[in-house]
């Protein structure tokens, strides 16, 4: 099976050639704005806590700014870990796509169905991905990371944070193609349906 990042790196080979950035440095990357100041940054061998912190910054932005959110989870367990937080966040997000390696056919996240689409990516090349996307006045931005494994699955990740629109549109297109869905960050109806 082709890795999810392969076609992105094939289309944009310069992404792999960029200097790697230490996103764990809290003195440099303390806020979402610190990440957004840099159009694109690549990382390798990053640990889960660093991605979790960045994910929370993106998720909190989506809720504060009432913007759509895409979030992938490798397993049900990883979604369950944040489910209570997500239930609160989703109230302030016009549309959320939660995509996870949900193997259990009876697993049903407790989310508002009118504002959330739950998709299982079990058995696809998305199952090893950690993706969190949202948008602001400049367009989409987000985290795209691949689980490299290690001693235990989830020890190390490689990928990037970017606000490059062509790269992110390809990421969304690949998710749509894999999941046979229609993630559209620029659907004007999303904002109109605010409750």
The largest β sheet comes out as: 7 strands, mixed
Q: What is the mean pLDDT?
A: 87
What's the number of extended β-strand segments? 7
Low-confidence stretches: none
The best one-word shape is: globular
* Sheet with the most strands: spatial strand order: 1-7-6-5-2-3-4
In whole angstroms, the N-to-C terminal distance is 42 Å
Beta-strand proportion: 15-25%
**Cα-atom radius of gyration:** 16 Å
Determine the fraction of residues in helical runs and give it as a percent range.
25-40%
Structural class: alpha/beta
Number of helices: 7
Oligomer: single chain
What is the element string, with H for helices and E for strands? HHHEHEHEEEEEHH
Short account of what is shown:
The chain is of the alpha/beta class and 195 residues long. It has helices at residues 5-11, 14-17, 32-36, 48-65, 76-90, 165-179, 188-192; strands at residues 40-46, 69-73, 96-100, 116-120, 129-136, 139-149, 156-162.
Describe this structure in words.
With about 200 residues, this protein is α/β, with parallel strands linked by helices. The protein has a domain at about 45-100 and about 125-195. The chain contains seven helices and seven strands. The chain has helices at about 5-10, 15, 30-35, 50-65, 75-90, 165-180, 190; strands spanning about 40-45, 70-75, 95-100, 115-120, 130-135, 140-150, 155-160. It has a seven-stranded mixed sheet, with helices on both faces. Strand 2, helix 5 (about 75-90) and strand 3 form a beta-alpha-beta unit. The radius of gyration is 16 Å and the shape is globular. The protein starts with a helix and ends with a helix.
């Amino acid at each position: 099976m082709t890795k999810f990042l392969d076609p992105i790196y094939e289309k944009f080979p310069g992404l792999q050639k960029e200097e790697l950035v230490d996103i764990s440095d809290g003195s440099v990357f303390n806020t979402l704005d610190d990440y957004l100041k840099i159009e694109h940054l690549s990382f390798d061998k990053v640990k889960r806590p660093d991605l979790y912190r960045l994910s929370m910054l993106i998720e909190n932005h989506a809720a504060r700014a009432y913007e759509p959110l895409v979030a992938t989870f490798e397993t049900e367990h990883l979604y369950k870990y944040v489910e209570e937080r997500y239930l609160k966040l989703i109230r302030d997000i016009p549309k959320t796509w939660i995509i996870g390696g949900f193997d259990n056919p009876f697993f049903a996240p407790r989310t508002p169905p009118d504002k959330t689409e739950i998709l299982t990516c079990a058995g696809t090349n998305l199952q090893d991905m950690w993706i969190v996307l949202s948008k602001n006045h400049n367009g989409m931005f987000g985290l795209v990371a691949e689980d490299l494994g290690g001693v235990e699955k989830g020890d190390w990740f490689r990928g990037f944070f970017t606000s490059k629109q062509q790269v992110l549109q390809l990421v969304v297109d690949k998710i749509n193609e894999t999941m046979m869905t229609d993630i559209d960050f620029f659907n004007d109806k999303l904002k109109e349906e605010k409750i």
